UniProtKB/TrEMBL annotation:
GO terms for molecular function: GTP binding; GTPase activity. It comes from Leersia perrieri. Belongs to the small GTPase superfamily. Rab family. It comes from the Eukaryota. The chain holds residues 1 to 174 of 225 of the full protein. This is Uncharacterized protein.
Length: 174
């Protein structure tokens, strides 16, 4: 078993039901779980990839339901190099909550250069979209975040979004 060159801890944050668990499952196993709450209790999933010729183990943390209390523990953020800040493109409420999640992250993450990507999930639900891409992109730019949209259901852009985040982290630590 070869050893990895880097381990990158990435936390997934955002309101309940935006699709965090599904996105994580999609990226680490390329699966969509119909019974998504079966993963409660699992703290993180990993996937090892090659970035810049190096073996990078992405350790992606799931809140496992803690976010229902509107915040997660500081231990959740500890050592994180990246954060995937997820909202649901069909829910303005979840988009507005992203600002609160960002404030919580900035207040409690121990790493001030944490790389954050704002990710609009459920992009497959085109008929019930409630958040424009332009508006979200403007918020991301204003806050210094990377921005993407994806669908954990179809798998569209999930790989690209996580890889984009991991490559930005690699650019900082390598
Ligand atoms: P979490 O609470 O943020 O971890 O959200 P889950 O991953 O449990 O997903 C919440 C609900 O949204 C579940 O019913 C999922 O099946 C559904 N869901 C998640 N991602 C998508 C997506 O990309 N498209 C659609 N249409 N539904 C999704």
């Amino acid at each position: 078993m070869e050893e990895e060159d880097y381990v990158f801890k990435v936390v997934v944050i955002g309101d309940s039901a935006v699709g965090k668990t599904q996105l994580l499952g999609r990226f680490t196993k390329d699966e969509f779980y119909l019974d998504s709450k079966s993963t409660i209790g699992i703290e993180f999933q990993t996937r090892t990839l090659l970035i810049g010729g190096k073996r990078v183990k992405a350790q992606i943390w799931d809140t496992a339901g803690q976010e229902r209390y509107r915040a997660v523990t500081s231990a959740y953020y500890r050592g994180a190099l990246g954060a995937m800040l997820v909202y649901d493109v069909t829910s303005r409420r979840s988009f507005l909550a992203a600002a609160r999640w960002l404030a919580d992250l900035r207040a409690r993450a121990d790493n001030s250069s944490i790389v954050v990507m704002l990710l609009g999930n459920k992009a497959d639900l085109t008929n019930s979209r409630a958040v424009d891409s332009d508006e979200a992109a403007a918020f991301a730019e204003d806050q210094g975040l990377f921005f993407s949209e994806a669908s954990a259901l179809s798998g569209d852009n999930v790989e690209e979004a996580f890889l984009g985040l991991l490559k930005e982290i690699y650019g900082i630590v390598s």
